[in-house]
Amino acid sequence: MVNQSTTSSRAEPTGEMSVLISGASFAGLATAYWMAKLGYRVTIVELAGGMRRGGTPVDIEGETIGILSSMGLLDDVLAKALPPRDFEFRAADDSVLGRIGSDSASDRRSAQRYEIHRDDLLDILFAAVDGSVEILFGRSIRRIDDGADSVTVTLDDDSRHTYTLVLGCDGNRSNTRRLVFDDGESASYFMGGYFYLRVVPKTGMLPANTSQLFSVAGRAAMLNGYDDRTDIALAFRSEREISYDFRDKTEQRRLIHDHFDHLGWKVPEMLTHVDADGDFYFDRANQIRMKSWSKGRVALVGDAGYCVSPVAGMGGSMALIGAARLAEALRHHPSDHAAAFREYEDELRPFVEEVQERAATIGMSMLFPADERELAERNRQLREGTIDLEL
């Protein structure tokens, strides 16, 4: 909740610029880096007891390359870059319907497009801020009171602190968005499907440096093969949102079985990993579409304000881009946060909305065709070599 009139019982030094960042993933760490460079005293609060690890690799391309270079981190990223991968569309008998071939390593470098394991990028960003910012693990924000000259934040231990700015970098289900923004609860845009994701040790189901996708109308199964692990992904389409307990893993496994039992290709073997003990991710395919990314002295960065969805394959890059664009706007308007927030949104929103629209239309129909018509059209483009997965 936001209360404009509440003042802090514990005032911070008045002459110092300070910022509280909620969330310690890509958006939070990158934002912390830039805010420290701008001269802010930076504090990060992260609900988890440590860095949130796991997940699929991150694509690094386009503007993100220049951002990492300006941060002095590009060489570290290149040292951890993964080999190029073929992307294959497979039929039920495991024959190849179509293939998007990987470039050679030299061509890939010239095209400036890389892939890096999520944990490796997280470690690189953490090392870049380690020692220069304060990180409070196991803490969350309970209340945000936005005033004319400062923001007072109450944490879940009842301590109160005053900051110049508060930046929500806390992901798709942002606590900052929920506390501050009027449309925070209604900002989620359902894309018409659900997906399951698990990372397991190398399975032998496919060669390393290869991705394989099998689709029938309304359902898709995908494998990403690496030298030391395999990503297992299962997705199904749904016209309406499904009510389920996000804490009940048994119920989520049941939903997967309801949609994928008796399906061919490599799905039966994939389902054995669904049933095995271990962490996995299950969620709706959605985006965050906000009327505004800022309110008063509070602004959102990355998935918290403009999640483009995993279908776009740009979550990590968008977090880095958003953090850098916000810092640039604050550099242009060092004493006027409102003007900086307007510039940040005006400059970045057109790009975000373009990526979101392509993911919600072309991306979903190409990767997860909803019906026989979409599946036939996707396969026609595969045969003719006109398919475009660049989102």
Describe this structure in words.
The chain has helices at residues 26-37, 63-70, 74-80, 105-111, 118-129, 175-180, 249-260, 267-275, 303-306, 315-332, 337-367, 372-384; strands spanning 18-22, 41-46, 58-61, 86-90, 96-100, 113-116, 134-137, 141-146, 151-155, 160-163, 165-168, 188-201, 210-216, 219-225, 229-237, 281-288, 294-295, 298-300. Strand 4 (86-90) and strand 5 (96-100) form a beta hairpin. The chain contains twelve helices and 18 strands. It has a seven-stranded mixed β-sheet, with helices on both faces. The relative contact order is 0.16. With 391 residues, it is α/β, with parallel strands linked by helices. The model is unreliable at 1-14 and 104-110 (pLDDT under 50).
Structure at a glance:
This protein is α/β, with parallel strands linked by helices and 391 residues long. Helices cover 36% and strands 26% of the residues.
Question: Would you spell out the secondary-structure blueprint of this structure?
Answer:
Layout: E1 18-22, H1 26-37, E2 41-46, E3 58-61, H2 63-70, H3 74-80, E4 86-90, E5 96-100, H4 105-111, E6 113-116, H5 118-129, E7 134-137, E8 141-146, E9 151-155, E10 160-163, E11 165-168, H6 175-180, E12 188-201, E13 210-216, E14 219-225, E15 229-237, H7 249-260, H8 267-275, E16 281-288, E17 294-295, E18 298-300, H9 303-306, H10 315-332, H11 337-367, H12 372-384
Parallel strand pairs: 1-2, 1-11, 2-7, 4-13, 11-18
Antiparallel strand pairs: 3-6, 4-5, 8-9, 9-10, 12-15, 12-16, 13-14, 14-15, 17-18
Helix pairs in contact: 1-5, 1-10, 2-10, 7-8, 10-11
